[in-house]
Amino acid sequence: MPNPLQLKSLNHISVVCASVEKSVNFYVDVLGFFPIKRPTSLDFNGAWLFNYGIGIHLLQSEDPEGMPKNAPINPKDNHISFQCESIVTVEKRLQQMNIKYVKSRVEESGIYVDQLFFHDPDGLMIEICNCDNIPVVPLSEGNVWSCSRFNCNIQNPHPQIQQVIPM
């Protein structure tokens, strides 16, 4: 596949927060991120967090009172998604923490993906899923990818054709 910008991976997402402290607690206690050092040249309130190979940069809102509040949980809205090992474990944990969530299931050719959607303290929607159950199939003829948090295997649908694919 072409890579005109020579991209390697997702580095971080930035989230504007009404309260950096509340958001840090959420991302640490609920999602398992840990705080990391921010560059000292950043002269505004914020925090950097890291885990699972990605960073979350929390930025203090200049207008915390003007931030949107209490939007309904809508799986078709903007969100970030995290792969999990056990959707049952995640659901139990959300219940223990009294976090409101919406449960959804997607089916494709007898393969099921379970999804849990909930909000962070500022209304950013989070999805937790077992999405790697469904292979990544390019719309053009080519390789079928099976990706998970631990590996990414390419399955060649045409074994008679040798393919060299840079990783």
Automatic annotation (TrEMBL):
Pfam families: Glyoxalase
Signal peptide coordinates: none
PROSITE patterns linked to this entry: VOC (PS51819)
Domain called VOC: residue spans: 9-131
Protein name (database record): VOC domain-containing protein
Organism the protein comes from: Clitoria ternatea (Butterfly pea)
Organism lineage string: Eukaryota, Viridiplantae, Streptophyta, Embryophyta, Tracheophyta
